[in-house]
């Protein structure tokens, strides 16, 4: 995939990412209060709420280990000490403890420290940002599973769309269909209706790149377009919202839109 283009803008920085991991985890934990952990999760087929909690906390603990070690190459194993709860009513506390481990790792790590990352930004801040959106999206999954309507901060949602588009070209190791996102300079534009989030995705013969649009560049036309609130676009790119939803507007080349959403599953 084409990796020559720099990462998209980070609308918020590592300090905000770190604080938001704690806030998002607390909201996730609140959704577990009185919940049946065996209920299915709409955004994660075949997962129960218990599976979702275990996954999210495990990822937080894994990322914390990577940060503490400042790994310089892909880890050979993803096995870490999970200290899983022994009782069914211990999952909420366990998830809170996972976030506390992440907070400790953040406090001990310079976000600008060079380290290996699977995405474009080869610094510790990559994992802080990645952990936030892993937690945030799964928080919305948990809330939907228990019948709540998720609310997402627009600034965080905008940053989440940016993070997703910037890293997607590098996700082929676990999302192999991304390699099919090639073209002959076709363009797909994503625009937020409630923030200044605006990106142009250009499909090339060797892959694709997503470029934030600002100033005069924002007037550039595209072959297809997707518009919605930042929160809806974030849920859309993560497959939690269908592109036919009333809250999302799509225009232009239908084949290009179909190709993108069929192959960009994260």
Describe this structure in words.
This protein is an alpha+beta fold. It has two domains: 14-151, Four Helix Bundle (Hemerythrin (Met), subunit A) (Up-down Bundle), CATH 1.20.120; 159-264, SCP2 sterol-binding domain (Nonspecific Lipid-transfer Protein, Chain A, 2-Layer Sandwich). The protein is 41% helix and 11% strand. The protein has seven helices and five strands, in the order αααααββββαβα. The chain has helices spanning 14-31, 49-69, 91-107, 124-145, 154-167, 230-237, 254-263; strands at 186-192, 198-204, 207-212, 224-228, 249-252. Strands 3-2-1-4-5 form a five-stranded mixed beta sheet. Helix 2 packs parallel to helix 3, helix 2 runs antiparallel to helix 4 and helix 5 (154-167) runs parallel beside helix 6. It is globular. 38% of the residues are buried. Residues 156-258 form the MDMPI C-terminal domain.
How confident overall, as mean pLDDT?
93
**What is the 3D shape?**
globular
Poorly predicted regions are 1-10
| The CATH architecture of the largest domain | Up-down Bundle
How far apart the termini lie comes to: 16 Å
Q: What is the third-level CATH name, the topology of the largest domain?
A: Four Helix Bundle (Hemerythrin (Met), subunit A)
Please tally the helical runs, counting DSSP H or I stretches of 4 or more residues.
Answer: 7
**Full CATH superfamily name of the largest domain:** dinb family like domain
Give the C-level CATH assignment of the largest domain. Mainly Alpha
């Amino acid at each position: 995939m084409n990796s020559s283009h720099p990462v998209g803008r980070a609308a918020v920085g590592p300090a905000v990412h770190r604080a938001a991991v704690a806030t998002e985890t607390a909201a996730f934990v609140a959704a577990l209060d009185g919940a049946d952990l065996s209920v299915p999760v709409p955004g994660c087929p075949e997962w129960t709420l218990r599976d979702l909690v275990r996954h999210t906390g495990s990822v937080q603990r894994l990322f914390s280990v990577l940060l503490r070690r400042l790994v310089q190459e892909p880890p050979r194993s993803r096995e870490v000490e999970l200290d899983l709860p022994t009782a069914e009513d211990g999952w909420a506390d366990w998830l809170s403890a996972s976030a506390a481990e992440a907070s400790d790792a953040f406090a001990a790590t310079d976000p600008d420290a060079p380290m290996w990352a699977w995405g474009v930004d080869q610094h510790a801040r990559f994992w802080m940002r990645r952990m936030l959106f892993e937690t945030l999206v799964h928080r919305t999954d948990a809330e939907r599973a228990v019948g709540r309507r998720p609310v997402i901060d627009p600034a965080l949602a905008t940053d989440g769309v940016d993070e997703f588009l910037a890293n997607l070209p590098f996700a082929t190791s676990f999302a192999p269909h991304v390699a099919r996102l090639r073209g002959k300079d076709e363009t797909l534009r994503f625009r937020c209706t409630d923030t200044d989030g605006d990106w142009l995705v250009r499909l090339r013969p060797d892959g694709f790149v997503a470029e934030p649009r600002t100033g005069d560049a924002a007037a550039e036309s595209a072959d297809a377009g997707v518009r919605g609130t930042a929160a809806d676009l974030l849920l859309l790119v993560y497959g939690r919202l269908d592109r036919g939803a009333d809250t999302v507007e799509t225009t232009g080349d239908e084949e290009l839109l179909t190709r993108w959403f069929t192959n960009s599953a994260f």
